[in-house]
TrEMBL record:
The keyword Transmembrane applies. The chain crosses the membrane at residues 42-64, 76-96, 117-139, 145-164, 171-188, 203-228, 240-261, 281-303, 310-331, 337-355. The lineage of its organism: Eukaryota, Viridiplantae, Streptophyta, Embryophyta, Tracheophyta. Belongs to the purine permeases (TC 2.A.7.14) family. GO terms for cellular component: membrane. This is Probable purine permease.
Length: 369
């Protein structure tokens, strides 16, 4: 009879153990389901942001070249339309603000002084960057311009190393070297045919401005990621729109000062009159350039928020080889041997970086198991 209580206690212990295992397995299954749902949602967002970035970049770059080819000659106006399209985002901004107000997430926001300084600084860098890009696109064929822009990935990786603690691996170093060589090759040619005809001196100016703009863009992406991490500390669509709208507003005001100070505004009427496609298409081209760059901004900043500044730049680099193909078809830009080699090296560098990202993902998944 003395053994009966011990047997009952053993049975109860085994039953409790089984219940605990069922509960643990259930919570693990639920956690796995939640993680999968988050993964699916993340990939959906990444797909949408990637489409916005690639579509906006391609359309805006090609229309920017069309503006110059058909009679446009104002560098400041070409710079202005790159940032002045932000008002089209205001309806989305108020919609995201309404959703944020109904959420239960509360955080201590940064002070107005800190936010003003952050957006003003990024706006100043954006304005300078857009002006350099405009000069580069004025003096270079669109295909050459796009391939040189691939160097922005190398600059972004360098700045990310210091500002965002980006780690360098053999594949990333290989990617940076290939992209650097890809851009450097293009300075050894001078194209006198195609969508633009310029002297060797102007070609060099266009090359230097585009490389400088690529460096500035790489720095701006790294600073944007740093601001998300250290100042804003949020991961919402409203934060993405805040970043785009306020820095674009600051950049627009600075560019307007440059437009009026340079005196180029006085010749805009004559420029519209002499535009080869007519006044209506002159306005339409400028409007759709502005829309294209805002769509690009949503994709670029969204990818920074969801992944990193370097990943956003890699996706941007992915779209660069597409532009020379369209430029050859629509603007009859020549596809020289140097350009082909440059394009192959750019794609090779991109694939090298993507493979490193794939290895990181596999390592992360293995660590979770």
């Amino acid at each position: 009879m003395g053994e009966a209580p011990e047997i009952q206690l053993q049975i109860l212990a085994e039953d409790n153990k089984l219940d605990a295992e069922r509960q643990t397995n259930g919570s693990m299954g639920q956690s796995t389901t939640v993680r999968r749902q988050r993964t699916y949602k993340w990939w959906l967002l990444m797909t949408i942001y990637t489409f916005f970035l690639l579509a906006g970049q391609s359309v805006a770059t090609l229309l920017g070249r069309l503006y110059y080819d058909k009679g446009g000659n104002s560098k400041w106006l070409a710079t202005f339309v790159q940032v002045a399209g932000f008002p089209i985002l205001i309806p989305l901004y108020y919609l995201s603000s309404y959703k944020s107000a109904n959420s239960n997430i509360t955080t201590n926001p940064p002070s107005v002084l800190v936010l003003s300084g952050m957006y003003s600084g990024l706006g100043l860098l954006l304005a300078a960057d857009c002006l350099l890009y405009s000069v580069g696109l004025l003096y270079l064929p669109v295909s050459t311009y796009s391939l040189i822009c691939a160097s922005q990935l190398a600059f972004n990786a360098l700045f990310s190393f210091f500002l965002n603690s980006q780690k360098f691996t053999p594949f990333i170093i290989n990617s940076l070297v290939l992209l650097t060589i890809s851009s450097t090759l293009l300075i050894f040619q001078n194209e006198s045919t195609g969508s633009t005809q310029v002297s060797k001196g102007k070609y060099v100016i266009g090359f230097v401005c585009t490389v400088a703009a690529s460096a500035g863009y790489g720095l701006m992406l790294s600073l944007t990621q740093l601001c998300f991490q250290k100042i804003l500390k949020k991961e919402t669509f409203k934060v993405v729109l805040d970043m785009i709208i306020y820095q674009s507003l600051a950049a627009t005001l600075l560019i307007l000062v440059g437009l009026f100070a340079s005196g180029e505004w006085e010749s805009l009427g004559k420029e519209m009159e002499g535009f080869k496609l007519g006044k209506s298409l002159y306005v339409n081209v400028l409007v759709w350039i502005a829309v294209g760059w805002q769509v690009f901004s949503i994709g670029a900043v969204g990818l920074i928020l969801e992944a990193s500044s370097l990943f956003s730049n890699v996706i941007s680099t992915l779209g660069l080889p597409v532009v020379p193909v369209f430029a050859m078809v629509f603007f009859h830009d020549p596809m020289s041997g140097i350009k082909v080699i440059s394009m192959v090296l750019a794609v090779w560098g991109f694939v090298s970086y993507v493979y490193q990202h794939y290895l990181d993902e596999r390592k992360s998944e293995t660590g979770k198991v």
